[in-house]
Predict the 3D structure of the following.
Amino acid sequence: MSGKPWCRWRREAEDILLEAGAAVVHLPDFFGPLVHTSSVQMALQEALTGKAVSAIGSAETGRETVYVPDAMAVVADLLEHDEAYGTDWAIAGNGVASPRRLAEIAGAHLGRTVNVRSAAPWMRKLLALVVPALRPVVPLAPHYSQPVRYDASKLRGLLGEVTMRPLPEAITATLDWLAEEGGAG
């Protein structure tokens, strides 16, 4: 994926910001109130509306996730330190979750079973031929099919231990927000 133009553009933008003395923060797969597009948010939306959670790749692939309100509290704390500027930071998040784990947590909160569906790479390409909205997802599939964990040791070195709410609590809060916003239909 590093050969894709948007990856190069992102890297170039980060380099410009770092040279200007900015702090660049990297977040894992994010979700939460006021988030409208992300892989985790879309999975929770599917669960809320009674659909199966879509998995890109294996339903068992675990990826680091972060609840945006927790991440922004860490960012605000980070930016109070002069040492934060001119470098980049990884925020590890609230825990690792696979699509299956997201479905289990959502199902426990919703009081029903939430299924998971996964499409093989050839099926995603075929579907993208007839569903234009899927076309941008196809090149990203290899990235989202890989496990991801963030190393936040550099962040801990500056801030100490960072406390975030447990993943089930963060997912529950997001599902409640989605329901309040009319996400159930």
Q: What stands out?
A: Strands lie at 24-26, 29-31, 53-56, 63-67, 88-90, 95-97, 116-119. The mean pLDDT is 87. The helical segments are 5-19, 39-48, 68-78, 99-110, 121-130, 141-144, 153-159, 167-180.
